[in-house]
Amino acid sequence: MAIPDASLGASSARSEESLVLAERLAQGASDPEQVREAARLFSLEGHRARAIDVLRQGILTHPRHPDLNALLADLLSRSGSFEEADLCFQRAVECDPGNAEVRYLEGLHHGRQGHLPAAQSSYEEAVRLSPTHVKAWVNLGLALADRGDRTGAASALKRAIAADPSCAEAHSNLGVLFAEEGLREEALEEFRRAVALRPDSSESHFNLGWALLCEDELCQAEATLQESVRLDPGNVEGLYALALLHQRTGAYARAVEALKQAIERRPDDARFHYSLGMAYNSQEAVDQAILALETAARLEPLDPRIHRLLGVAFDKKELPARAREAYRRAAALSG
């Protein structure tokens, strides 16, 4: 018989208490602070629709309250109701043009839709209004990086760190920029800072582990990537990085195990099937290699590497006609 999990029971009780409190606060629509807190609690407990309803009711009483309009806009944006969110953000800005938090949330809203110039503009206005708004600096850096302005991105991330040296996200993203620029030592330093600041962050461990793998620091890389996956078992990129590491060290069975887990979570990623085919091919498990590589070719038919390795597998299987066809396709795709 299973033993009841006391921690789950306690968590459920706390959740119920939060919802009761939220409902009680929601009755005080005459107080905008109570409305905001009720919406926050409902949202935290996963009751986003109820949070939106509470904010709508509160805005009926306080139509010009910038925070209520901004919170409603943010929740609508998170729910995919972008057009209505646009109207709410416009109203929030009109109510309080100097509110940096409103501009920051507006930037997130534009970013969710892939409107990078608009997102950048909102973040720039947020940091103009509040030069120490760390999250706005971080997201401005990300928007600039996505638009190809790496110099501006690095500057924004450094401003975030200047405002808050303990911001692990800023260190981690600055490390990514350094890595992409080939500044490996600087990247490792930023990644190590991010892990020290946020030892519970799977992403920070992944970034550091990948950088260590690129430096052939395999023991440290393996330990760091394993911690990344432990912190987030759904981290498929961490599993993929571990598989590449195991292949490099000749631990093909472990590579296969990691890749199978990655494929289970993301079955349509051709990289995983290609690497699985490589691992099976190295184990002389030719039939499994062919199956994995054919799946990879179906998902990414224009990758010459896949067809080239299929040719190798067909040669091992003594299927010369199929091997020639695979090599021919690889050559044609390579130009």
TrEMBL record:
Top-level taxon in the UniProt lineage: Bacteria
TPR repeat positions: 66-99, 100-133, 134-167, 168-201, 202-235, 236-269, 270-303
Pfam family, one: TPR_16
InterPro entries: TMTC_O-mannosyltransferase (IPR052384), TPR-like_helical_dom_sf (IPR011990), TPR_2 (IPR013105), TPR_rpt (IPR019734)
Matching SMART domains: TPR (SM00028)
PROSITE patterns per UniProt: TPR, TPR_REGION
GO biological process, one term: protein O-linked glycosylation via mannose
Protein name (record): Tetratricopeptide repeat protein
Lineage: Bacteria, Candidatus Eiseniibacteriota
